[in-house]
C-alpha cells in the first residue's frame, strides 16, 4: 500500500507504455486506481510498470488489433484484479504521411484495424467480462484530426472520425450501466507525434492560443475526469483538449 489509498477501481489502458496512454495511467494510479497497460514493446511495458508501481500496475504485451491479444488482456486483468471498471482505448497508428488520394488501401485497412476495430473489440470484451453487470466507463482517445480536414494524415483523421462515431454508438447501446466518451487532443508532445513539431516546437506552439503544445498529463487529467463520479451525467460526448487551436478556425 502506497501513500495513496486504493480506490478499489481498475482500468485497462491500451497503448500505454509511453505517451498519452502512460499519462492516463499515471493520473488514474495517482487517485488510487490499479491499471493494466498494453502495448507492443514488452521492454517498454516492463519499464512503465516499474515506474508506475508493480503493486498498482500490470502489463500484457501484444498488438491491439489481434483478437487473441484482446481476449488475453481482459482475461489476465480479471484474473489479477477481479474487475475492469474503466477502459481507455488509446492504441493507435499513423504509418503514412501524404495525400489520401494515393493511399495504399492495405495501409488504410491497417489504420482502421488498429484505431477503430481494436477499440470496438476491447469495448465488447470489457463489457461482457465486467461492465455489463457492474457498470463503469469507457474513454476513447480520438483526435482533432477526426473533427476537421487533416491534410497529409487523412487516413488517421478518417479513422478518428469513425472512433468518435463509435463512441456515440456505444454510449447509446451501453447506457445506463456504462458511460462512453471520447477525448480529441490536438498535438501532444509524444514520440508518436514528433514529426508534427520536432525541430520547430516554438513555431508549432505559436498557433495555439494557450501558447504551448499539449503534454500527456493534459490528457490524463481529462481521462481522470471522464472516469470519475464528477462526470456521472456525461456520456456520448467528445471533449476537445486542444490548447484553444480551434479558436483560430476561420481566422485569416
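Q: What amino acid sequence fits the structure above?
A:
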Amino acid at each position: 500500500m502506497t501513500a495513496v489509498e486504493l480506490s478499489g477501481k481498475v482500468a485497462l489502458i491500451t497503448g500505454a507504455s509511453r505517451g498519452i496512454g502512460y499519462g492516463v495511467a499515471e493520473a488514474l494510479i495517482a487517485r488510487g486506481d490499479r491499471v493494466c497497460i498494453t502495448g507492443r514493446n514488452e521492454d517498454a511495458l516492463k519499464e512503465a510498470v516499474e515506474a508506475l508501481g508493480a503493486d498498482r500496475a500490470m502489463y500484457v504485451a501484444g498488438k491491439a488489433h489481434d483478437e487473441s491479444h484482446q481476449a488475453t488482456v481482459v482475461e489476465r486483468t480479471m484474473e489479477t484484479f477481479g474487475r475492469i471498471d474503466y477502459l481507455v482505448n488509446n492504441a493507435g497508428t499513423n504509418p503514412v504521411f501524404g495525400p489520401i488520394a494515393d493511399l495504399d488501401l492495405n495501409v488504410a485497412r491497417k489504420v482502421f484495424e488498429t484505431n477503430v476495430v481494436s477499440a470496438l473489440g476491447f469495448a465488447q470484451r470489457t463489457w461482457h467480462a465486467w461492465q455489463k453487470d457492474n457498470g463503469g466507463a469507457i474513454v476513447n482517445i480520438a483526435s482533432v484530426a477526426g473533427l476537421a480536414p487533416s491534410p497529409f494524415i487523412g487516413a488517421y483523421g478518417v479513422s478518428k472520425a469513425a472512433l468518435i462515431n463509435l463512441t456515440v454508438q456505444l454510449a447509446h447501446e451501453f447506457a445506463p450501466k456504462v458511460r462512453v466518451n471520447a477525448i480529441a487532443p490536438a498535438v501532444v508532445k509524444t514520440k508518436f507525434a514528433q514529426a508534427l513539431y520536432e525541430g520547430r516546437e516554438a513555431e508549432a506552439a505559436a498557433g495555439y492560443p494557450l501558447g504551448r503544445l499539449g503534454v500527456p498529463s493534459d490528457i490524463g487529467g481529462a481521462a481522470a475526469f471522464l472516469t470519475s463520479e464528477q462526470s456521472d451525467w456525461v456520456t456520448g460526448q467528445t471533449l476537445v483538449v486542444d490548447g484553444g487551436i480551434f479558436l483560430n478556425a476561420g481566422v485569416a
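Q: And what stands out in the fold?
A: The longest strand covers residues 178-185.
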